[in-house]
Amino acid sequence: MRAQFVLSEIGVGLRRNLTMTFAVIVSVALSLALFGGSLLMREQVSTMKGYWYDKVNVSIFLCSKVDAESDASCTKGAATDEQKKQIRADLEKMPVVQSVQFETADEAFKHYKEQFGKSPIAASLTPDQMQESFRVKLKDPSKYAVISSAFSQRPGVQVVQDQKTVLENLFNLLNGMNYAALGVMALMLVVALMLIVNTVRVSAFSRRRETGIMRLVGASSFYIQIPFIMEAAFAGLLGAGFACVLLVGGQYFLVNNWLAHHIDVIQFIGWNAVLAKLPLVLAIGLLMPALAAFVALRKYLKV
Predict the structure, then answer these.
(1) What is the CATH number of domain 57-140?
(2) In the UniProt record, does the keyword Membrane occur (predicted)?
């Protein structure tokens, strides 16, 4: 097989179907960028789960004087020193508990100021309006119900709150966004495959005379098909290259230079995760159009 002939045929095919080839490149680029983004999103969620679940606490908020006047759970008044000691002793005896930390009202006010100091509400709060609480670290975060059932009805306890529930809502939202991206990716992939098949069909039809002559002089089916397959593979590889550019640009501009500066409570994935996905994107961009063209040629390349 002469490489020069194959390359010339690829050039002819790309020039004859320039508009459709451009459409293939764009659709492949978008679909593979969404595919790579979905993989990175899934890895980001896994990283966040590992990071935050390790820091999850169960908070037992105690009744204060303010709560005694307004909250039905604190009708017996603010938590006494004896109740606090008993709660701490009972927590430390439980096998599911890893550690117990008591947070005073002053400490709670300080932490609130550090996290929400720019909020308009923060200016009107005073330390005596904050609640004392026990921050309970569990050996297994899924055992929250054990703590809740044991302490939610205790005198002096206003509410038992599991931070894992708040995180689950966040992770469910992120997973929903990931599934939506996968859905759009699948739709774009179907569009790309349809464009590839149609491009190959038009290219084969426009060169039916040449392929007929090649068939008459004894050229094999593979020899006739290889230029069409390589055209599709070349267009797909270009699209995959653009998808890689989009992924790298998204990591650099969106994640590293914007999100990381505005959201400092999230540990974002690094360049290693992004670079690890690029070979997969390139491989799919090369093989998917080539395979689609091969299947299409079996039907349309008949002379």
Answers:
(1) 3.30.70.3040
(2) yes
